[in-house]
Design a protein that fits this description.
About 40% of the residues lie in helices and about 25% in strands. By secondary structure, it is an alpha/beta fold.
């Protein structure tokens, strides 16, 4: 399919005709023979003398060539393009900042993971039996395992990682290299950031890194900013209270999903403050989840994947290929043919005149 980028330039097509109609023709002077009885000849011929000027008029084939060249040049100016087949593209990718609690309580081994093994009981009958084994792992190990599966589902997303305890630290800036991100996650250990739980400080650092033009977000073209916060306790004396940090995140258009892991019946400093957790999520338009097993934690991440799908927009376009060079090439070819034709005619006339002169001289 052919399309013109600047179709209004086609209005230039009648321009040569308008110029020839309204502008006087170009006149050239040529040598003339002077005779003393010119007025007598003019009177006998009943002709009115005029100035010794001549109009240049192109021949019919020259006019056709000029018209064709002009039409081709105007077509080139309109910039014709060839449209390809419609293409649909999914606009993928989000900025997901994952905040992982590394306080001392994350070392608590209260998450179970079930694995099934199949053992052959009779080699002759090929009968087999399935045995289930339960492995007890720490909260941090469970988080790492589930995040490994979660990262595989976020194709096209940029993932960031913040570890927090007594303070918040940037472990991995936003990156599309999920393998490197997982390596940095797996290198994290309980106590690296201290024994406390400063949720508000972690949120504040995430908000700072997600501001346009700051930190690793300077090259980000994503509009959706999402924070996933994992913690197993309540906030312990952050510089910025979590609720205040959530209000700032809401103003910046950042959604915060909070996942509370561990035993909800825990008391003391390690007890989970569900009111604060739900308040942070609610203020930012996110969701608050609670998981006390590996299966529940995996289900939570599945729900987050559905809430924040990777393919969140699509657009359709048609590839365009400009073909303006084709009419230009055709105009050049026509011009060269016309030039060669004129040159050949002049050469032929010159040779003919020289031959006639030589024949006349031989006759004399």
């Amino acid at each position: 399919m052919l399309e013109f980028s600047y179709p209004l330039l086609a209005l230039l097509l009648p321009l040569p005709w308008l110029i020839s109609y309204f502008v006087p023709a170009f006149k050239v002077k040529q040598a003339a023979i002077r005779v003393p009885f010119f007025n007598l000849i003019a009177a006998l011929l009943k002709a009115s003398p005029n100035s010794a000027l001549q109009y240049l008029k192109p021949t019919r084939w020259q006019q056709c060539a000029l018209i064709c060249v002009w039409i081709l040049l105007v077509i080139a100016m309109t910039k014709p393009v060839m449209l390809g087949e419609p293409q649909t593209r999914q606009q993928v990718g989000r900025d997901l900042m994952v905040l992982v609690d590394l306080s001392g309580s994350m070392e608590t081994a209260d998450f179970s993971i079930r694995s099934d093994t199949e053992n052959s009981s009779d080699s002759n009958s090929h009968r087999s039996s399935t045995q289930s084994s339960v492995e007890i792992i720490s909260r941090l190990v469970a988080v790492k395992r589930v995040l490994n599966d979660f990262a595989e589902q976020r194709k096209g997303d940029r993932l960031g990682l913040i570890l927090f305890g007594d303070a918040a630290y940037l472990q991995a800036p936003f990156t599309a290299d999920h393998e490197s991100w997982l390596e940095l996650l797996n290198e994290s250990q309980v106590g690296m950031a201290g024994q406390s739980t400063h949720i508000g400080d972690a949120l504040g650092l995430a908000i700072k890194l997600m501001q346009p033009g700051l930190g690793d977000d300077i090259n980000s073209r994503q509009k959706d900013k999402v924070v996933i916060l994992l913690t197993d306790g309540n906030d312990t004396d952050s510089s910025v209270p979590p609720i205040e940090a959530a209000k700032i995140a809401a103003k910046k258009g950042i959604r915060v999903h909070v996942i509370a892991i561990g035993d909800p019946l825990t008391l003391g400093e390690q007890a989970m403050d569900m009111a604060t957790i739900e308040g942070v999520a609610g203020l930012t338009g996110g969701r608050a989840f609670q998981a006390i097993s590996t299966t529940e934690l995996a289900d939570v991440y599945q729900q987050i994947s559905e809430l924040e799908p990777a393919n969140f927009a699509s657009f359709t376009y048609q590839p365009k290929q400009s073909v303006h060079y084709l009419p230009i090439a055709a105009a050049i070819i026509i011009y060269l043919i016309a030039y060669l034709a004129v040159f050949s005619l002049r050469l032929f006339r010159t040779l003919k005149v020289s031959r006639l002169k030589s024949d006349n001289q031989e006759d004399l």
